[in-house]
Specification:
mainly beta; 2% helix; 16 strands; six-stranded mixed β-sheet; 191 residues
Length: 191
Amino acid sequence: TETPSCGENVFSNSELISTIYSKPEYTGGVTFCSKPNKNTINSNGTSGERMKYITTTESELIIYGEGEIRGVNVQQQITSITIKDGIITFPNNFFKSFEQLNSIRIPSTVTTIENDIFDECYSLQTINVDSNNQNYTSNEKGILFRKDMKTLVKYPNGKQETNYTIPENVTTIDAYAFEGNNKLNTIEMNQ
């Protein structure tokens, strides 16, 4: 049986259709193609056995499926990444080539985020984590923490602030947490 795929402009001139679902044997019963914010699909691909991804004409990369994603082959500048429920982990330096990445949404199912995963994401300003994630969270400023808020995991490289005060409850700062941010002049420990 052939694995389904989405062609270019699959939702062009379609105001009512927003999602295509495929049979469970292809994608584990998850959405195969969706039209976020009325964008059209620009390209699509696979990564690993049960991973799929699409890019939209609005420079968004959407990753979905189950398990660990291995890599994507994207030929456009990506400014936003949405990761759907089912993805649990990423390899080291997975986002390294996304220099224009501005924001990322991490689902509830992600269990592991490597310390250097956002290396060279110089434009990244916001990391948003689903509130149901048991391992990670983000604050209102888009900064990544472990769920208990005691470990600061990543201060996004593209943040423009020159000063940052680490929250009182933080007792650990992960390796590479501030790597790549060239705007910060002062980091204040609030203890």
